[in-house]
Design goal:
CATH class: Alpha Beta
Helix content: 25-40%
Number of strands: 10
Shape: globular
Strand order of the largest sheet: 3-4-2-5-6-7-8-10
Distance between the termini: 51 Å
Largest sheet: 8 strands, mixed
Strand content: 15-25%
Low-confidence stretches: 4-17
Structural class: alpha/beta
Number of domains: 1
Radius of gyration: 16 Å
Order of helices and strands: HEEHEEEHEEEHEHE
Length: 164
Amino acid sequence: MKKLLTIIVLLCLLGVVRAQNYKFQALFMYNIAQRIEWPNLSGEFVIGVIGNKEMHKELESIAGKKQLFGNTIKVVHVSPDELSDKMYHILYLDRSSSTKLNEVDKSVAKRPTLVITDKNGLTGGGINFIDNSSKIEFEIFPTVIKSHQLQLSGSLLNLGIVRE
């Protein structure tokens, strides 16, 4: 009985830690977006979330309070098949959706879209969050980001682990 109670408490704590992690990742995404030069930005800044509802909730919380470059932020839940006809400035793929990265990349290949994943070590996206319980880190792929007609600030490169 004691073991079961201990396991339940640990799982609850893990859920709280993971929810807190989404909050920090959402703030990181907002700060990353501020360090990129977006072409033809007018109207809404659209963030698409593939997968995780917690991340969607955290990003909506930010969108309700902040703007990007004077534009309102719109957060939408999408699936990889819905990408071909809409413009997204940022697409976030949660860990379980990371297998769809190639499909997502093909859909947004020629668009100014930053693809961010929640799984380190993936190639094809622009930024990958690194699963590290002590702090939030991210890999950044400048060549991929530039191929999407996006310009990076030097400060962004200093914040992440640069990969080529």
